[in-house]
């Protein structure tokens, strides 16, 4: 189900709780909402649809994926950039990393460890920041 975008800064600044298998519907709603906003959005975190859970959805080019409890375990190649967010007006400066390694659980709660670089890495970092209550 497509959900409205959360714009309450107080809510967005709170850390999200670990996700469980009982939260799969939140991930489905997150993927639906990302798809509905694909013209101006490439990633979303569950708190952006009002669910304080560690779930993100990321556009991988031809498809979108959900990640439960994502955690960056390695990062290299720091750089400064500017980003926008559906939950905020305008763009803001931030620090990102060119390459990251992420541990997460997929929709079947199978543990994964993947490396990402470039644009995809930047999206994942932005969304994990949302889970940690960090806004650009």
TrEMBL record:
Coiled-coil segments: none
Top-level enzyme category: hydrolase
Gene Ontology molecular function: peptide deformylase activity
The EC number(s) this enzyme carries: 3.5.1.88
Entry keyword set: Hydrolase, Iron
Residue ranges of the TM segments: none
PANTHER family per UniProt: PEPTIDE DEFORMYLASE (PTHR10458)
Family membership: Belongs to the polypeptide deformylase family.
Stated name of the protein: Peptide deformylase
Source organism per UniProt: [Ruminococcus] torques
Taxonomic lineage: Bacteria, Bacillati, Bacillota, Clostridia, Lachnospirales
